[in-house]
Specification:
Length: about 100
């Protein structure tokens, strides 16, 4: 079970720049929770660092992990017969209401 979890996360990394095709629920959620877990572990280990280095490390992790997560979600929307543009609408919808309020 754990091995499959990591396999799906690795597959999401391998397909990072592939915005065509489909992704099953297991691939999407496995990649999300794998990256979340890695982020929490690195955050806990790096908490002894200075504020600037800690912030730089978190920004680097965000930059590395955001592309595979977005691409897997876009492919998931393709799997449920929606355009990948729905991801950005759902993700940034609260900001639109805040801006136009």
């Amino acid at each position: 079970m754990i091995a499959c979890f990591f396999c799906w996360g690795i597959q999401a990394i391998q397909r990072s720049f592939d915005y065509k095709g489909r992704a099953c629920r297991r691939e999407v959620w496995s990649s999300f929770f794998l990256f979340l877990g890695i982020g929490v572990i690195v955050s806990l280990l790096a908490s002894w660092m200075s504020d600037g280095a800690y912030l730089l490390l978190l920004l680097m992790m965000f930059g590395i992990f955001i592309v595979p997560v977005i691409s897997s979600w876009v492919r998931r929307f393709h799997d449920i017969n929606l355009s990948g543009k729905w991801f950005f609408f759902i993700e940034y919808d609260p900001f639109l209401f805040w801006i136009f309020d």
